[in-house]
Amino acid sequence: MEELILAIVKPLVDHPEDVKVEQKEDHDVLQLNLYVHPNDIGKVIGKKGRVAKAIRTVVYAAGANQHKKIHLEIVD
């Protein structure tokens, strides 16, 4: 899952070396925290959150077979 997020986000930002995904897993929840450079936060979120919503949609669809609830949070 981390590789998928990195593959989506790194081409969008100006500082791809600062993109990091942290994964925490409970028995029924998979928490993913996406860290980006503070100057790139707007590019990852997009106008009215459209880019962030699209990233979440792809991640949730890819994780549907894991039978866990997935939360993706963008942290600056």
TrEMBL record:
Keyword check for Zinc: no
Keywords, sorted A to Z: Cell shape, Cell wall biogenesis/degradation, Chaperone, Cytoplasm, RNA-binding
Subcellular location: Cytoplasm
Main subcellular location of this protein, as a coarse class: cytoplasm
GO terms classed as biological process: cell wall organization; peptidoglycan biosynthetic process; regulation of cell shape
Highest taxon in the source lineage: Bacteria
Gene Ontology cellular component list: cytoplasm
Pfam families to which the protein is assigned, alphabetical: KH_KhpA-B
Family: Belongs to the KhpA RNA-binding protein family.
Subunit structure: Forms a complex with KhpB.
Function in brief: A probable RNA chaperone. Forms a complex with KhpB which binds to cellular RNA and controls its expression. Plays a role in peptidoglycan (PG) homeostasis and cell length regulation.
Protein name: RNA-binding protein KhpA
The encoding gene: khpA
